[in-house]
């Protein structure tokens, strides 16, 4: 195996996790949670999304959150931005870094943002250009890379075409999303094999969902192929909208347990991260689905007995 000795985890819970939770978390609680996360050793936190608040009411307080947190040196604070309007709001709130997104599936893209893939490119291009002019780096998400709820399997040509186009625009890193948690290790290997013929491992992050229990296996496969950046959502926050009760995003704490056990460094303090997980679990008002949090919960029960 050729895994590297250090890995970077990008925490997407405050955005990707909370946008899929039914419970609305109060702004001051989001801010307090993010402040916990900032002191855990995480170096990158995606705070929120500057989409139309009517579309995602859970993140309707984007400005207040970005302006309200205590910024810690060495932590990059990012936000998702759908277009120029969202970018203006993000810049006004003085975000550190921008993330743009589109889907590898024509139907999913249309469902998500009501645009074809071809119609989405100029919008992202303008957003990237204006972000770079404002000295903000831009990260790109491609969703449904490993399968789409409407179209099924996505062709590697479709993935390559979008990847090439986004990199040409000046995006520094693409996060490959398994949006519905359908990927398996063989498929991850096949997709990465093709992408890594054109680009180096540093150009990609993996964004897995654990909906069907393959999240860590997929992460390990990517690690074995030299990938060193992974998205995680603390506690597995963010259930999958297509499968009620199922876990959504790969849990930061489960990923961390595996990496640290393998001797791979992350800079993240597990205890502090767990404190942050307990904090948000209490605010969400239900047991978080990550394995780590469940084990932790059981330990408390055993001690009480
Ligand atoms: Mg996700």
Summarize the structure.
With 305 residues, this protein is an alpha/beta fold. It has helices spanning 13-17, 27-38, 62-68, 84-92, 106-113, 117-133, 156-169, 185-198, 215-224, 252-261, 270-284, 291-304; strands spanning 8-11, 44-49, 76-80, 97-103, 138-143, 173-177, 204-207, 229-232. It has 12 helices and 8 strands.
Could you name the CATH homologous superfamily? Answer: Aldolase class I
Strand order of the largest sheet: 2-3-4-5-6-7
> What is the H/E string?
EHHEHEHEHHEHEHEHEHHH
Helix content: 40-55%
Strand content: 5-15%
How would you describe this structure to a colleague?
- The chain is α/β, with parallel strands linked by helices.
- The protein has one domain (8-304): Aldolase class I (TIM Barrel, Alpha-Beta Barrel), CATH 3.20.20.
- Helices cover 44% and strands 13% of the residues.
- The protein has 12 helices and 8 strands.
- A 6-stranded parallel sheet has the order 2-3-4-5-6-7. Strands 1-8 form a two-stranded parallel ribbon.
- Helix 3 (62-68) links the parallel strand 2 and strand 3.
- The radius of gyration is 18 Å and the shape is globular.
- The termini are far apart.
- Bound molecules: magnesium ion.
